[in-house]
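Fold it.
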Amino acid sequence: MLAAPDYKAMYLELFRANERAARLLWEAQQRAEQQLLDESPPPLHLDTEKPDLSAKGNADADEFMAEIEAQVRQLVKTYSCISADKQNLFQSERVIIGKCPRCGENVYEGKKNFYCGNRGCQFVMWKNDRFFEQRKKAFTPKIAAALLKNGKAKVKGLYSEKTGKTYDATVLLADTGGKYVNYRVERKE
């Protein structure tokens, strides 16, 4: 059964990001005003032409946040008085593992899985997948990246429950397009 998203954690993460953005903007405004008084920097041009679709519920939340982050990055770049550590505040935190075989969007590493960035896609590879746990092999980002790139990954040290020994094999991604992702073993000869 697919676990429901942790909306509380998502909300808290978004809230913290908004707090950091607001704090950064406030600091930038204070420094910019001081800089304006001192030396008259170039005028600030924000993209105010677009209507506020988020207030009407017509915009995608990720797209809306991406636009805000882009504007903040531009602010940070424009005003040199912002310190280097503050300039790195809005770097991407998600690690891209590869491309989704279903929709082509980026696949990211989460705490418990590798998931598609497109919420409608629902492609997910679980780190604690029974296939890898039975073979006593950790489902690493390296294996996930190879599966996403080539549809297969060479894996050493897979455990066989029948023989009690380990073996090397190629693991194939057998995505059915359904709720779960399957894997198959192609043994080396």
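The chain has a mean pLDDT of 80.
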